[in-house]
Structures are given as C-alpha cells and as structure tokens.
Amino acid sequence: MPLRRTLSSATSVLKAKLGLRYISTTCRAVVLPRFGGPEVLEVRHNVEVPELKPREVLVRACAVSINPLDTRMRSGYGRSIFGPLLPLILGRDISGEVAATGASVRSLSVGQEVFGALHPTAVRGTYADYAVLSEDELAPKPASITHEEASAIPFAALTAWRALKSTAQITGGERLLVLGGGGAVGLSAIQLSVAVGCHVSTTCGKQSIEWVLAAGAKEAIDYTSEDIEAKLKGEFDAVLDTIGAPETERIGINLLKRGGHYMTLQGETASLADRYGLAVGIPMATAILLKKQFEYRYSHGIEYWWTYMRADSEGLEEIARLAGAGKLKIPVDKIFLLSQAREAHEAKDRRLVPGKVVLNVD
Ligand SMILES: NC(=O)c1ccc[n+]([C@@H]2O[C@H](COP(=O)([O-])OP(=O)(O)OC[C@H]3O[C@@H](n4cnc5c(N)ncnc54)[C@H](OP(=O)(O)O)[C@@H]3O)[C@@H](O)[C@H]2O)c1
C-alpha cells in the first residue's frame, strides 16, 4: 500500500478510536460551471470542503430538495450576482447530520440530525455530500419524519414564515388569502396560518385541491376553471401571492381590507439587476417598490411588499415543531439520486413532476 494511503487510513482509524469522524477535504458535488439547461450540471468528485468559520456547521447531506430558485439560477436568473462567481453549487434545502462545528457553535453537536436552508444568494449550495450552513440556518430534524420529507420543508416554509409572521404579523381569527396554495410555499403558508388560528382561502389547480383542504384551507378555488373574484367573498387581512402575475396582484389587492398586507414572492430586484446591472438595477428596483408602496397606500390603504426568504432561527424551530407534530407537511412527489441531478432538473423544467422533487445523497 502506498505510504500516503497507509498514513491516511491510520489517521482515520486513530480519529475513529478517539470518537472523531473522518472528514475528507474534498467531496462530491453537483457543480454549475455555466448557465444553461439541465445538461450543464456536472457531478464532480473533488470539490473542496471549505474550512468552517466560528458560527458555521458542516452538514453531511442525506437529502436535498429542489426549489424553483435552483432551476431558475441554473438558467441564468441572478446572473448579475452569480455570473462572476461561477462555478457554483446549486441547492438551498438540506437534511442530514452534523459532521463538524465551528468554534463558537453551541446549539448543535456532531452526529445530530439537522435540517435547514441557505439564503437565496449563497454561492456554495447544498447539492453535495457536505454543505456549510450557519448555526442559525439549521435546527434539529424532527425524528418522526424522514430526511427526504425534512429536506422539502425549510426554504419554502421560511419564505412563508417571513411573509406571514415577520411582515403581516398574522394572528388568530384573521382571514388570509393564498394565491397559488398548491406549491411548497403556498402549502406552508396555509399550514402556518392554520396553526395560529387563521381562516385561509386559496387558489390552486384541480390536482392540488385535496392537498390544500387537507392542509387546513377552508376554501379552495380552482384557478383553471373558476372565476376567483366571483367566488371569493368578503375582505382579507393579508394576501400572499406566490404567482405574482399582474392579474393575481390586481385581484389580491382588491380583496384586502384597509390596513391589510399584500405580499408577492415575485419581487423584481434580481430580474432588474440582471437586465441593467447591479449599479442601475438595484436602485431602480428600490424606486419601483417605493412607488408601488406609496401608490397602493394612497389608493387602497394597504401595505405592499416584495417578500424574500430569510434565515430565522426562531421560525425554523417553530417549523420543526409543527413538522414533528404532523402539522406541516410538503408532499414529496419524486426522489432521485444526487448523481441524477440533471434528470431531476429536466423533470422539473418539463413539468413531468408537479410537486416536490428531492435528491437522495447516499
Ligand atoms: N422571493 C423568494 O424568496 C421566494 C422563495 C421561494 C419561492 N419563491 C418563488 O415562489 C414561487 C412558488 O415557489 P414554490 O416553491 O411554492 O414552487 P412550487 O412548489 O413549484 O409550486 C408552484 C405552484 O404554483 C401553482 N400555480 C402556478 N400558477 C398558478 C396560478 N395562476 N394560480 C394558482 N396557482 C398556480 C402550481 O400549483 P397547482 O399544481 O395547484 O396548479 C404550482 O404547483 C416560485 O415562483 C418561486 O420561484 C420566491
């Protein structure tokens, strides 16, 4: 046996005897070297595992889920930010096991099962054997759900949490409208609002009606065959628009009470920055948002927001509690292996799988 391999295997044995886990300095990852279709994704076996900063945690991935942001980033969405940083690793969501912790991490320990999500602008994503997240982006995984089920939840649920709890500050007895309740964020929003005692109405496709009602929505309107405005009665305290089309924005705003909150997931910051560059696009987006906020406050007496996912450790703990109690579920439609990331992206792009797709990382 060559000397290097002998030394490395001796080190592994010593680490194992001392109760330490052997962590390689490189690992397998799905890398995006350039923007394009699913065919640009490359499985590489020698990707560096970064050194941990004090508040960071190295997670050995068991499952990672695919979000619309992943397929959009792959196609070039956010190129003004990510273009200069290529090659990058896609993926926000993860469920796995703590492999190592930075010097200041107190709440998590090696060997613990965890789940969580990275911020939308993170460059080293989760489609890898090992991912690095900060301590506040992770929580203990509920023991009652599998890694695949857990990986489907955090990014979507934290986005819904940001809108409903941080922005609209929903409370029991309020009426919420979720435009597009059949997707992962919509289902999370329904379940988080029902958990605090809100009355939820939603729009979704025919195939999602059973799910949204099981999630606790009181009223589900099929947007493909029914007249949403004719069907929805009364006024709402908050509207979460996961679609963000001009038509859904108009409907959502007209259905709000004075003082209510309209929140869309389709903020224009990244697309304007992509079109005009960061220096022009970001101030332009801010100006457009401020103008809309001012106009809708004046014309309808409502608060208008672009919602973006953000880490929230308190939110993630509550999400974990609800998921553990069976009160927050995102159905997983199909599981691929990490090495099949291309096929999984193709399935999402071609709408062959309507619901959540997860990559198993074993
Ligand atoms: N701003 C942020 O930080 C942020 C974070 C997360 C997601 N997002 C964005 O939010 C959107 C939803 O994300 P997701 O993870 O929930 O996606 P998803 O799980 O893929 O769900 C999308 C769902 O939207 C539904 N839909 C499409 N058109 C509709 C319409 N006109 N009316 C009602 N429902 C409609 C479809 O449901 P049916 O099957 O019922 O037709 C589809 O399943 C995506 O565009 C994503 O990029 C933004």
UniProtKB/TrEMBL annotation:
Top-rank taxon: Eukaryota
Gene3D superfamilies linked: Medium-chain alcohol dehydrogenases, catalytic domain (3.90.180.10), NAD(P)-binding Rossmann-like Domain (3.40.50.720)
One GO MF term attached to the UniProt entry: oxidoreductase activity
Domain Enoyl reductase (ER): 36-359
PANTHER family xrefs: PROTEIN AST1-RELATED
Annotated protein name in UniProt: Enoyl reductase (ER) domain-containing protein
